[in-house]
Specification:
With about 550 residues, the protein is α/β, with parallel strands linked by helices. It is about 40% helix and about 15% strand. The chain is globular, with a radius of gyration of 22 Å. It starts with a helix and ends in an 18-residue tail after the last helix. This is Amidase.
Length: about 550
């Protein structure tokens, strides 16, 4: 094990006591325990006096180091919660048959003092577009529901090398919401419909819907999502958890079902910023070749960001209000700004430029990129070997049409200009330029540490016939530019969570996470879902 891996873990454990005053995870609940140390009440989040809703990875590692918790106990607790709670929300497609053996191997390393890093023994759910050699990877489509891929995605190789327990696969919006003109987020032919844990007839948003809903319901410690534009941060906001879209290229896209190499990235999701950053420290870096994933400079820097959150005094944050998301969200942004100012931050209202042009150019560029990239991916899998064959598969399989029948985006992509076409290349060049300027110029003009905006509106009702109501512009500047963004719980509109989206300059992920940890501590906006069947007629939250 490399020395830097030990240093990263030691730093995480050493600062854990210093975080008690403000970081989620310190509100552990006592409970009467069964023989295994877990609470006897059905669906409980309490394990050996630990509240799984709020505990952080550094606290779990400290307990495992002391010997009063094992990865096996933690993994069993999450598997039990999946059995008892997931039927309400339908977020988990499958659990790994080797999850417990992975946990037992981690227990042995903990006993021998050979811990591989902060994620050793920590259960992780993967979105079902991330390749796993031992479980199906379907992107929600029956077309890929046969044999698993031959190899793991690079990020899965890193997670395994770091000792994480691959707990299973989360449901997702089929083909990451890039199939139909009016898709329904959280629905796939493989997994059916994922529901929002806060109000079950409301939508979980975005294609990483299962990952976010599972975290809100405390079915895993952390999860992996993917984003092209909004599909990590919107589910995080709408399900009241944390989601980080990394800078483009920070996490390898190798072995992840694509939409666009120019915008796609996998990223970490969790119930707090600390766990999000520690997970990013493991999955980030160049493609692996069997190396120790926890022993990189990126891991060390991100671990420091996770465990040493910056204060807010003197920080300059630009607030992009987006009143189009409704008066209730705007009122929440006003309250959020007041709380940040009370903590010493300067909040300046801003409007990043070029948004209308970005909205005009992004979709046609993605069509060309999707055709190129999905053909390459499908050629490596059993099943349809290219986009044309995939379109034909959907036409001839009625189960692919049980929520919505359309595949208009597939058909448009098939007819889109090639990525070698000068028309496409001009679009992508303009997109790259304007999206970067929209952030860089705004931050420079106001000397900002970050730009903040609402991540999402209150969750809309799920309706297959209508599709989503998800015109949410806040994710686009960071998504198109490849810059990092981070969604943190900001509060609620009635019963429904709303996130605060922070974005910053290229490869400023560690600084953004440190700032996010400070914002999270100040807002303290997380609360557990109540699994309400619905809301009274006429209410938004």
């Amino acid at each position: 094990m490399k020395k830097r891996s030990v240093a990263a873990l030691t730093a995480a454990l050493a600062v854990a006591p210093l975080l008690a005053a403000g970081v989620p995870g310190q509100r552990a609940m006592a409970a009467e325990s069964g023989a295994d140390g877990s609470s006897s009440r059905a669906g409980s989040t309490v394990l050996r006096g630990i509240d799984l809703d709020t505990v952080t990875i550094p606290e779990l590692q400290a307990r495992m180091k002391r010997g009063d918790l094992t990865s096996s106990q933690l993994t069993l607790a999450y598997l039990q919660r999946i059995r008892t709670v997931d039927p309400k929300i339908n977020a988990v497609l499958r659990t790994s048959p080797t999850a417990l053996s992975q946990a037992l191997a981690s227990d042995a390393r903990h006993r021998l003092g050979k811990v591989r890093g902060p994620l050793d023994g920590i259960p992780v759910l993967l979105k079902d577009n991330v390749n796993t050699r031992d479980m199906p990877t379907t992107a929600g489509s029956l077309a890929l529901a046969g044999s698993p891929p031959a190899t793991d995605a690079d990020l899965v190789t890193r997670l395994r090398a770091a000792g994480a327990v691959i707990l299973g696969k989360a449901n997702m919006s089929e083909w990451a919401n890039f199939r139909a003109a009016k898709p329904t987020s959280g629905w796939s032919a493989v997994g059916g419909q994922t529901r929002n844990p806060y109000v079950l007839d409301r939508n979980p948003c975005g294609s990483s819907s299962g990952s976010a809903a599972a975290l809100a319901a405390s079915l895993a410690q952390v999860a992996i999502g993917t984003e092209t534009d909004g599909s990590i941060v919107c589910p995080a906001g709408m399900n009241g958890v944390v989601g980080h879209k990394p800078s483009l290229g920070l996490v390898s896209q190798s072995g992840v079902v694509p939409i666009s190499a120019e915008q796609d990235t996998a990223g970490p999701m969790a119930r707090n910023v600390i766990d999000t950053a520690l997970t990013l420290s493991v999955i980030s870096g160049a493609d692996t070749a069997g190396t120790d994933a926890a022993g990189t400079d990126a891991a060390f820097g991100l671990t420091a960001a996770a465990t040493q959150p910056a204060g807010l005094r003197g920080k300059r944050i630009g607030l992009w209000r987006l009143p189009s998301l409704g008066p209730d969200v705007d009122a929440l942004m006003t309250r959020t700004a007041s709380r940040l100012r009370a903590a010493g931050a300067q909040v300046i209202e801003v409007t990043p430029p070029h948004q209308a042009r970005l909205a005009e150019l992004e979709f046609p560029a993605l069509l060309s990129e999707f055709h190129r990239d999905i053909d390459t991916y499908l050629s490596s899998r059993n099943g349809p070997r290219d986009l044309a064959a995939l379109i034909e598969f959907n036409r001839t399989h009625p189960a692919e049409q049980t929520c919505f029948s359309g595949q208009e985006l597939f058909e448009l992509a098939l007819a889109a200009p090639s990525t070698t076409d000068p028309r496409y290349q001009a679009m992508r060049a303009e997109l790259d330029d304007l999206s970067r300027r929209s952030i860089d110029e705004t931050m420079a003009a106001h000397r900002l540490d970050a730009i903040a905006s609402p991540t999402n509106p209150p969750a809309w009702t799920t309706d297959c016939s209508r599709g989503d109501n998800d015109v949410i512009p806040s994710s686009t500047p960071a998504a198109v530019s490849g810059y990092p963004s981070l969604s943190i719980p900001a509060g609620f509109v009635g019963e429904l969570p709303v996130g605060l989206l922070l974005m910053s300059g290229n490869h400023q992920d560690a600084r953004l996470l440190a700032l996010g940890a400070a914002v999270e501590q100040r807002l303290n906006a997380w609360r557990a879902p109540r699994y309400l069947p619905s809301l009274p007629s006429g209410t938004t939250g």
